Amino acid sequence: MHSPYDYQKKAALTLDDGTIFEGLSVGSATEAEGEVIFITAMSGYQEVLTDPSYHGQIVVFTTAHVGNYGTNPRVDQAPPVQVAGAIFHELWEPPVDHWLSERSLPEYMRANGLAGLTGVDTRALTLHIREKGARNGWIGPMSDPGAARAKARAIAPMTGLDLALKVTCEKPYKLSAKPSQTVPSGPMPVAVLDFGIKKAILDNLRAQNLDLTVWPANTPHGTFMAEKPQGLFLANGPGDPAACGYAIESVRATLGKIPVFGICLGHQIMGLAAGGTTYKLPFGHHGLNHPVKDATTGRIWLTSQNHGFCVDPDSLPSNVAVTHVNLNDDTLEGLEWLDLPAFCVQFHPEASPGPHDADGLFKRFRIMLEDFYA
Amino acid sequence: MPRRDDLKTVMIVGSGPIIIGQACEFDYSATQGCKALKEEGYRLVLLNSNPATVMTDPELSDRTYIEPMTLDVAVKIMEKEKVDAILPTLGGQTALNLAMELFNGNHLDRLKVEMIGSTPKVIEIAESRQAFRSTMTGLGLDIPASGLAGSIKEALEIAKSTGFPAIVRPSYTLGGTGGGVAFNSGELSELAWKGLAASPVHQILVEESLIGWKEMELEMIRDLDDNAIIVCGIENVDPMGVHTGDSITVAPIQTLTDEEYQAMRDESLRVARAVGLNGGCNIQFAINPKTGRRVVIEMNPRVSRSSALASKATGFPIARVASKLAVGYTLGELKNGITGKSACFEPALDYCVVKAPRFNFEKFAGASSLLGLEMKAVGETMALGGNFREALQKALRGLEIGQSGLSGSCLRLPPRLTVEERLALIREKLALPYPERLSYVHEGLRLGLAPAEAISLTGLDPWFVTQIGLILEAEKYAAGPFAEKLSKGEAPTPGEWRYLKAQGLSDDRLAELAREARPSLATTPSDIQALRERAGVIPHFRQVDTCAGEFQAGTPYYYSSYDSPVSPAPEPEVARNDPKKVMILGGGPNRIGQGIEFDYCCVKATQAFNDMGFQTIMVNSNPETVSTDYDAVGRLYFEPVTLEDVLAICAKERPDGVIVQLGGQTPLNLAQALKARGVKIWGTDPDSIFQAEDRHDWNSLVAKLDLKQPPSGMAEDARSAISIANRVGYPIIARPSFVLGGRAMRVIHNETDLLAYVDEFESSGLNLGPSNPILVDKFLDQATEIDVDAVADPDKVEIAAIMEHIERAGIHSGDSCCTIPPITLPMEIQNRVIEQTVRLGKALKVRGLMNIQFAVTRDNEIYVLEANPRASRTAPFVAKATGRPLIQAAARVMAGLTLEEINFLGYPWPGYFAVKEAVLPWNRFSGARVELGPEMRSTGEVMGLDNNFGLAYLKAQAAAGMIVPSSGIVVLTIYDDDKEAMLPLAEDLRDMGFEIHATQGTCEALKNRGITAGKVEKLRTVRPNIVDFVMNNDVQLVVNTTSGKISDDDSVDIRAEAIKRGIPLITTIAGLDAAVKGLKAWKKDEWQTFSIQDYHLRPNSK
């Protein structure tokens, strides 16, 4: 894609272990820093770049070509871009001709101030992360490897980092339900704790005829309960769940009072609120092809996943049951409270990007609400 | 659900002979199926008429039936073997159709045989257009406007709603046989007529045209617990309008957003659920590139060509998994063999995979090479690369059509045209889908055609056209700064090399570009290679791991790439330290003359080497094959079988030996160059191979051994051709001195035809001359042809079989029917043939397999026609017919053992007859001459086994789709020289109750012998003529023999008519003789059906 002259304009990703992956600078900024993780998705790059769960991370796309179909504001999850940096094997730079595209991905990156590298041996980088674990890295010009490494090392580790407060909304706001024929009963008010929520989740909740009040992540229990929500939804989000003590508190106080449903970081916070612990996975789950088994029905869903932390099933009290397990590594993917109206999943039923196998969970939340108030 | 214990015996149905649209991908699938069920402990019964397959090897099943795949035979086998279940989803349309016949005839119920892997309901929905459409509409899926027609009138009526162009698709045919695009009502009438005839239920679908839309395929698996996965999405580079088998395709899908892709995925799952799919399925969609409107086109509830491709592209073994699901497992209970994780996942790719089709239009003079809805490709090659351009160019050079990558060289544009004239020609070509369309785009862009115009003319997605533009950019760099450096003797930088190589430019192509740009440069591909390696630029070998690197993968399946442009891979992915390594070179894409037979040889040899403790390494580029199943070989390199690619693997692996004699001509062509580069070739030395191929060396060898060969000469012009012909005497057999796609070999009977041949030769762009002569051989027209397969060590030559051809000499051995053992050759002649074979084998120092062709004249003179010190096309047939592990023996000899050591001496004479018959693709090439000749045209073969030769022959005919009737109307039109021999056979036909009709001369000959026959008029006389007669009457059998002359148009039309109408056609007296023998035996006795295991156990007659 590039003429050989371009190869002179070197930039690189330097990992905190000193490993260097060279590439060409793309996007507007020339420097970026964050935890480097890889995603094996073959489509949906724009959704990934705008997903707050990736906040502070440098995302490596393993698929050969990225940017082929351009960008379209409609699929932005929480604009502007959320990732700290993007690394491509081959970013599509020529003009894009796709009926949905409004501008090319490089233009989009420039407009959103995103730094990235293309022309990187992403497979080598992926294998490195797989073997050595996710680690911090710094994207910048190739000049002084020692200094680059020092910069990578200076980045705060993901463990212990509260990033939810960085991406949550500043003020509460309301979103009205979208009545549809599939949900015959009337709208119900639900509080949403925003740890970095994706648009697709909001859309799915509203499609269940739920009126949403979206609250900042650190809103105390009393504040959102004052509006008498009939249910609580806990959003996805970035960072270490254990660092979100305020949210764990709120959730603990809410469990049992009204039905609660959590996704991703929301799920982890529910696990912590139940008394469990979380730990960091070696390189996380980031992809659209994770098989998750429903422990009760035996059904397997292909799910969209994006998480670096995980709830330890052995740490949970007996009133919380494991409902879903990841078939790749047997890690915990879903919980259900046996004595309370609450459940949560680690994966992303809203997909965007990814398969829709699990989208019935939003319906399940609606039914739980209806049953609770029946 | 775990394994089903209520089933004991499972019958797997194969796909029969290789035909266009149904090739060796089903050998790959069914072989996987056999292995998967065998490891579950089921008793396996296999039915497949095709002896060239790996699946019909006796080791794979408990009972292997190489029998005609007819209802009767299937019923007999099910009764005899007490079959509990039939698995019809691995054998293509043939197996599905047979299973449906069994179901509809109530045989499954009666015999309490369960259909597994699919259900009649699913098949019905997929196959019946109406059921399919109502199911899809019921699920809320969009479908193209259309209607079903049972007549031309109805078709025209439907076209009022669909508009033109309209698509015609016949119901219940495979590979789109009989389908097409009609742009007006005249074309529609014609297509409707053809389609109605092609459909077994006499029904066609007339459909809204989606030409120019994107075409996408999803390969899906679902189990009965309702778990479902998409294994692979495939995007057709060619828009709708070209059959997917003829399209260049890419995986993963490149031009759809996640929303578009997921919507398609959702719909696929909805369909799978609605029909209750259990196993593999292929669903095709069309997407309007302007509006995103998506319609579902078809589904195939079985493994397919695309699922084989998807398996190879991703590493996910669809057929294996589908087979396990068929016997009760669910996806969650199965493991992904590559990563050890769950099999219930969707592979992620971090590379690009491109499939390109291989065509053989040059063999069918008169047939148009325009692509359409009906599949025409005879093979395909797949390539993996770091990006689309690298994969595309690897695929194109892997096709072995003389292209070193994407280039205009194959277009043969008239040289003296101006740029504008060329562009005009290119625009004209781009408006229609020709096989060379991407090369036209490339050449057009090179000459200044605007990309936008290329896009609008072709309907290609702009992304693909831009990719071609990027390749051109790299070529410009190669012709510019790169060539300049070469001409100055400067070394290009590693960065420059990587850039050029990552665009998929082969060393050949780089040399070509440099020479074109700077004619003073004499750069050869090996110069390029040396310079490149000196710069330290070699390919990386990456693992195909199903998961884009997410998990550790244990499966040694690799491809090469230069596309890690800046930083090298920090860790090597290929583990080293192996025992002795042997590398087997496969045959690349299938083509007429080089197909599944060679894959069988490669696979069996690989197994033998594995068994001997070698580390085996397979190199091949054909996604349809068993040899490219990573499970079947020690290590798989999915790479083009070209010198550059093979040398790169050799450099990486450093094999102790390389086997070139098993993959057909492809690896043989590399043998000398490999040897010259220090690669050790095992088996027969490349010099011996060359000795047998080179005209001069071969002639002196034959003379030295005191053997006879037909007199011959080399003609450099028309005059010398005539003088040679006069010297050796007509008829002659003429051919170009170098075989270009095996084309233009012909039997010629007189000077006029010879001059016409020379004209044709020259007008096809080949200039006759000293460097490019025509070979002229005396044609032994009344001789019997014989093939001998043998295996040799340095001391001994063991004859594996003598095959006698049923057709007269002059018909390519690949197209002719033959029998083991011979039926007319006296023992004395056979012994002399054996003795000559041994002499030739020793003289050529054969180590491994060899095949020799002889002709025996009526006065019992033996002529040697050619010797091939390599695996022959007949090797698998011989192995199946005789039960001897021929290829395994050859592998062991190549590894250094002697025939004595492996106890492979002593010629067994089967106590039964094995007849091989060829299957020809006439129905795909309308307009082509229906005639056998010295140029091979068959795509596949079948075998008939019986104690009686006649019955074995009839079985072979039936397996080839020609069920010779035992009574009815027969039309005879017999060449003068054949009339005498025909008469007793006609008497037999009459005695059996046939009603005989004949053309004038034949009729008179019959009457003179006192045989009553109705007279039919010859074609160009009065109406009704013979073709009218065939059309108007319920003719059961046509026998038509000819002189073999070019001008015999009558015969061509009669034969074409018979083929179009599916009427059994016999074109030689020998064939008629064999058929009559068979019919006589059949009148006395029922057909017996035995497995090859039964036959092989029988005592041999010697």
Net shape of chain A: globular
User: Span between N and C termini of chain A?
Assistant: 61 Å
Strand content of chain A: 25-35%
Q: Helical percent range of chain A?
A: 10-25%
CATH superfamily of the largest domain in chain A: Class I glutamine amidotransferase (GATase) domain
Contiguous runs where pLDDT drops below 50 for at least 5 residues of chain B = 566-572
Q: What is the number of strand segments of chain A?
A: 17
Query: Structural class of the secondary elements of chain B?
Result: alpha/beta
**Total of domains of chain A:** 2
Uncertain regions spanning at least 5 consecutive residues of chain A = none
CATH superfamily of one domain in chain B: ATP-grasp fold, B domain
Strands of the widest sheet of chain B, in order across it, are: 14-13-10-11-12-15-16
Residue share in β-strands of chain B: 15-25%
CATH class group of the largest domain in chain A: Alpha Beta
* Average pLDDT figure of chain A: 94
Cα-to-Cα separation, first versus last residue of chain B: 52 Å
Which shape of chain B, going by the Cα principal axes? globular
